[in-house]
């Protein structure tokens, strides 16, 4: 399994905030949920950092993991 981490948490917060219109309460919950999920990253086979503006590198890492057949 693959866990995709944000390069910076502030980037993740910005992306979460730009998503569909939500109530203020829902917008406040999203970063908390993300922190909880990130704290569980070690349960995954591999972690990939998604750095803003470098999607091609992120995808290369993910593709390489999938092609390797590792579990």
What key attributes describe this structure?
about 70 residues, 3 helices, about 15% strand, two-stranded parallel sheet, about 55% helix, alpha+beta, globular, single chain
Could you characterize the architecture of this molecule?
The chain is an alpha+beta fold and 71 residues long. The chain has helices at 9-18, 24-39, 55-68, and strands spanning 2-6, 46-50. Strands 1-2 form a two-stranded parallel ribbon. Helix 1 (9-18) runs antiparallel to helix 2 (24-39). It starts with a strand and ends with a helix. The mean pLDDT is 87.
* Secondary structure: number of strands: 2
Q: Tell me the distance between the termini.
A: 7 Å
Query: Helix proportion of residues, in percent?
Result: 55-70%
Portion in strands? 5-15%
**Count of separate DSSP helical elements:** 3
Strand arrangement within the widest β-sheet reads: 1-2
Tell me the overall shape.
Answer: globular
Radius of gyration: 14 Å
Largest sheet features: 2 strands, parallel
Poorly predicted runs: none
Mean pLDDT: 87
Order of helices and strands: EHHEH
Query: How does the helix and strand content classify structurally?
Result: alpha+beta
Short description:
This protein is α+β, with helices and mostly antiparallel strands and 71 residues long.
Layout of helices and strands:
Blueprint (H helix, E strand, L loop, with lengths): L1 E5 L2 H10 L5 H16 L6 E5 L4 H14 L3
Parallel strand pairs: 1-2
